[in-house]
Amino acid sequence: MSPLPARFSDWFTARGWQPHPHQITMLERAADPALMLIAPTGGGKTLAGFLPSLVELGENPPAGLHSLYISPLKALAADMRRNLLRPIEDMGLHIRVEDRSGDTSQTRKKAQRADPPHILLTTPESLALLLSYEDAPRIFAGLKRVVVDELHALAESKRGDQLMLCLTRLAALCPGLRRVGLSATVGDPPALASYFAPHPAPCRTLTADPGPDPDIAMLRTEATPPWSGGGGKYAMQEVLEQVRAHKTTLIFHNTRAQAEIFFHHLWLANRDNLPIGIHHGSLSREAREKVEAAMVAGQLRAIVCTGSLDLGLDWGDVDLVIQVGAPKNVKRLVQRIGRANHRYNAPSKALLLPANRWEVIECQAAIEAALAHDLDGEPRGSGPRDVLCQHIMVTACSGPFDADQLFDEVRSAGAYATLTRAEFEDCLDFVATGGYALNAYDQWKRLKQRPDGLWQLRDPRHAQQVRMNIGTIQDADTLKVRMRGRGRMGGGKPLGEVEEGFAASLVPGDTFLIGGQIVRFETLREMEVQVSRDRGRKPKVAVFMGTKFATSTQLSARILGLLHGDISALPEHTKDWISLQKSSSQLPRPGRILVESFDYEGRAHSCVYGFAGKNAMQTLGLLLTRRMEEAGLGPLGFVATDYATLIWSLEPMHDPAALLDPDGLREGLDGWLAENALMKRSFRATATIAGLITRNLPGRQKTGRQATFSSDILYDTLRKYDPDHLMLRITRDEAMAGLIGFARIEEMLARTRARVDHVVLDRVPPFAAPLFLEVGKVPVEGAGAEAQLAAEAESLMQAAGLV
Amino acid sequence: MNGCAFTFAGCELTLLGTGALWWGEAGLLCVSDLHLGKSERMARRGGDMLPPYETRDTLTRLEADIEATGARSVVCLGDSFDDLDAARGLAEDETLWLARLMAGRRWVWIEGNHDPGPVEFGGTHLAELHRPPLSFRHIARPGTAGEISGHYHPKARIRLRGRSVTRACALVDSDRVILPAYGTYTGGLRSDDGALTRLMRPDARAVLTGSTPCMIPMPR
Domain for residue A663, yes or no? Predict the structure, then answer.
């Protein structure tokens, strides 16, 4: 017998639909305490998640919260409400559905707390806020189900970690709470299920029919792709032909800047005036909503977009996805491909457009991986402790807590299952006292322990400040670019955003293009790139085009494998390039590091092929040039891509194996690491999440500029007086794994066991040639800044006649 | 002792790399805006619990400057404490440290807007100090001459080839010197801010702090 009540099956029938098998299975398993559904995009995931709630609530449900739906996007929660209202109204169910996010009005939020709806749609941050209220037990009383949408996306960031911790609180407040996770196809379902499970209890996984394999190929173009760079400008005509031949095309880019430039060129080439829109996260909400509405109404033939459309509504009419640039990661490629053709059981159609020669190889490797269902899953490691610090603080806001009980609760989240008591105590101590080696805040502790052993806020008024700072989103992926202004705090006008990696690679004085104008990079301060106008000159860096993501470990391995395998699927120009490399030098081999040394324009160059992803290859450049400096080789600079690092120096590299010796590599990193801007930025993020630094203060008055000081000062002070402080330990761990990519370097050295193939050549080898065209060259610090400064001061004084 | 020497109101003065001002002839060392006890004040007001090391960091530098110069007098130009309670709330070892620095030399606490009353550390408490031809006060008063003040925490930026450097700085013209903040937990006000450009004459200079203090035209 079908678990679907007649009222519901009639509704399906009336709409000419038939429930998917996994939607029925979800109903049958509605009593499972924890369940994760993996279904391809367009597989009716969300309805599968909601059906059990609608069926349980029925026609005349009693008052009170029954189900909580959590999605990573505010807009998704609002759309979901509209989508849910249709079946509810059609079937005449008296179910109240409301959404709640940072955009919801205060009055409405208050009403929701006093009288919660049956189904509340919200975001992880809004849930954390609700849990911080003293009346949280009353708000959530009777809650039966919690549905987490886009679990795969949440699990990739600290937002997911915070949500999992919130779920442990909910589970404690609402015994018998059932949780359902909805995920797109992922590489490692057991890992995701374990992340989501209420430990030590397991989470069962339900996998929907993935549907037919996608129809995926490389876009063949008349012109050959350029040697370097991104954007895919060379293929405008072919892209337009594809747009013309399909109903609606999504054209994905890896970065917003590339999307902007591509859109600009596409528009210039668009002689038929096809309606084409652009959608990315740097655009205003109004602009995005307009494009979304036009798309739903079927008014657009193509949308140039970025990750902002990775998640979200199911667009019915998309019949082609074009990915411009190498996808860097197979999982994301598969999810993007899934955006095309949402009719279940029809293959999604996708075309890959490599932006340069290396990407031709990477695209082919990615296509093969996608067809082999070989998705990448980089392990995320244990739960971040800065998020735990915030969770402890938020818990304290809702009322006194018992440390033993909270520890047990926290450990029931998958990412924190291996947390030790000592680590927990570290975090608790940080929240309560600041956790300093110097016990300074005895009198002003944030938390105090009552005689009965429970912990509570010393000053209940502090709760307001904590609530204003809930969340883990740091906008760290992109940095705002602002014209350097005179006078007041904010300075000049904002121009837009650039990626963090690009910003980090800039040297003051570099010029680049943004919003159609040439600007000069001045400083990177407080998460802002400050620039000045630079008239008339050619931009030094043509455009910002770094990718946010490093090529994944698995995809890198596939690229290496492809070089030695069947390359017949590659276009002729790329095959020729590979065989030229093979005959004039050699191909990089799996399990070994290839180093090519050659002279170019009177300078010694060495190209190191490590295939460890851009972050790690950049760090490798820093490490190698340091060692070269010590060896007296006079390194002058380097540039890194996902695959290789090119270094130029006064003296040639004779013994690369010694330079790549893993012994002492990590130690060599320390001095440089501590001073590194990435490290300081990482510290700022950690310190903000953990509550060492407060972003928003109640009733804060903006006083003069001199009243605020940079988080860099705190970082330097801690390093000097409390080098083992929790915040520094977290910062170090995260930077090593993330921006600095040290984990990937160690993976590379383990993989190759530092076996080096050193080839000395008398000219530029074919694989190294494109690196000369790469942007983001990093100069090695030569003469000290102080000497330069003194000379400059002298000449300024002379020029001004002040000496 | 690294520093940048200049003549002001007929006196030979040196700005040290730390931001302290040394008047050799008078054996007088002047520091401004120490903001001692800032982290304690923030914690007390229910704000952030910052690393509680700024007082010892500031005192370490002050001690080194006193030793290097052999100062007979020390003038703290106001905002020496982040507030009066912070002065009382200093840890015992820090209080002793300060007492040790004060012992055997003349010590003047000028009142600032953060510490407008006397503190319990001995020394002399004054609204202003006059040591002709110089006078010392916390906030610059337009129309005066030979004045040494603090309060604004000035900083300046200099462009080098391919880079730019921002440093705390002293601002100097024929009438006044505005000293940089000496305390560790202090930010800066850029020299091109209206508050500073209005105060300083057009030919003012900025003396940058750092390991090689140097003088440049005041960026405005």
Answer: no
Whether pLDDT at A662 is above 60: yes
- Pick the more confident residue, A697 or A188: A188
- A567 domain residue, yes or no: no
Q: Distance between CA atoms of A291 and A529, rounded to whole angstroms?
A: 29
Domain residue limits at A522: 478-533
Domain B3-215 in CATH 1.10.357? The answer is: no
- Residue B91's closest CA among A209, A736, A443, A571? A443
Same domain, A343 and A231: yes
Report how far residue A727's alpha carbon sits from residue A716's, in angstroms, rounded to the nearest whole number: 12
Contacts of B40 in chain A (CB under 8 A): 440-441, 444
A717 and B153 within 8 Å at the Cβ level: the answer is no
Give the domain CATH number at A75: 3.40.50.300
- Which residues does chain B have within 8 Å of residue A786's beta carbon, measured at their own beta carbons? 210-212
* Helix or strand run (H / E) with residue A449: strand A447-449
Q: By the CB < 8 Å criterion, does B192 face chain A?
A: yes
pLDDT tens-digit series, residues A404-451? 999 999 999 999 999 999 999 999 999 999 999 887 787 888 999 999
How far apart are the two ends of chain B, measured CA to CA in Å? 29
ipTM of this model? 0.91
Please state, in angstroms and rounded to a whole number, the distance separating the CA atoms of residues A447 and A439: 14
Q: What are phi and psi of A183, to 5 degrees?
A: -135, 150
Is pLDDT at A182 greater than 90 in this prediction? yes
Task: Please name which of A738, A686, A733 lies closest in space to residue A714, comparing C-alpha atoms.
Answer: A686
**How much is the pLDDT for A472?**
85
Q: Which residue would you say has higher pLDDT here, B63 or A229?
A: B63
Closest CA to A683 of A731, A722, A739: A731
Across the interface, of A717, A718, A797, the residue whose CB is closest to B216 is A797
Query: How many C-beta atoms lie closer than 10 Å to residue A698's C-beta?
Result: 12
Contacts of A522 in chain B (CB under 8 A): 164
Q: Considering CB atoms only, which of B48, B161, B194 is closest to A692?
A: B48
Q: How far is CA A215 from CA A209, A334, A341, A368, A566, in A?
A: 17, 11, 11, 12, 20
Q: Single out the residue of A742, A749, A776, A782 nearest to residue A649, CA to CA.
A: A782
Question: Residues 163-182, chain B: which have Cβ within 8 Å of A?
Answer: 163-166, 181
pTM for the model: 0.83
Strand partners, A303: A250, A277
Task: Report yes or no: B149 and B178 within 8 Å, Cβ to Cβ.
Answer: yes
pLDDT at A490 over 60: no
* A440 contacts B39? CB cut-off 8 A: yes
Instruction: Point out the domain boundary residue: A371, A399, A422.
Output: A371
Mark whether A329 and A432 lie in a shared domain: no
Interface test with B, best of A441, A446, A706 (most B CBs within 10 A): A706
Report residue A747's pLDDT band, with 50, 70 and 90 as the boundaries: confident
Same domain, A93 and A129: yes
Whether residue A352 is found in the same domain as residue A413: no
Co-location of A76 and A163 in the same domain: yes
Complete DSSP assignment for A205-220? EEE----SPPEEEEPP
Q: Tell me the nearest-neighbour CA distance from A474 into chain B, angstroms.
A: 18
My answer on whether A64 and A153 are in the same domain is yes
For chain B, domain boundaries: 3-215
CA distance B148 to A2: 88
**End residue of a domain, out of A143, A174, A207:** A207
Whether A800 maps to a domain, the answer reads: no
Domain membership flag for residue A670: no
The answer to whether residues A242 and A351 touch, using CB atoms and an 8 Å cutoff, is yes
Secondary structure letter of residue A233 according to DSSP: G
Q: How much of chain B, in percent, has pLDDT values that exceed 90?
A: 74
